[in-house]
Amino acid sequence: xxxxxxxxxxxxxxxxxxxxxxxxxxxxxxxxxxxxxxxxxxxxxxxxxxxxxxxxxxxxxxxxxxxxxxxxxxxxxxxxxxxxxxxxxxxxxxxxxxxxxxxxxxxxxxxxxxxxxxxxxxxxxxxxxxxxxxxxxxxxxxxxxxxxxxxxxxxxxxxxxx
Length: 162
Known about the structure:
By secondary structure, this protein is α+β, with helices and mostly antiparallel strands. It is 33% helix and 38% strand. The protein contains five helices and seven strands, in the order H-H-E-E-H-H-E-E-E-E-E-H.
């Protein structure tokens, strides 16, 4: 990237910021019960795979998380889905973002981290230039080696398997 043109470097920065927006926008959207916004984070056949539950497949199913009884119960108690600043690898019109994600919940003694996960988020640039999630894999950081292994792949590009 050192010898890249100013235009190429600017595009890379714009892409990286757009990817940050998608990654953090999911949490705000899901906690705000905005299914349309959640859906806009994903391609039509996107997948949200969570290590300890069945995968959510397809944009509409992922958007419908905002209507799920369990999720509505969390929001009613006070919760926040938070992603750390992701490490992003961009290769042309594909990218991967690696980060920690957590769900904070309001409890009797204040807020606590209810879930802490490792996340690998594969994205694709759409024809209009926007970035959307193709596949998101989360593993709980509960001692399962899959979580730390996923984080250790942070420098692998989007061509590596999910």
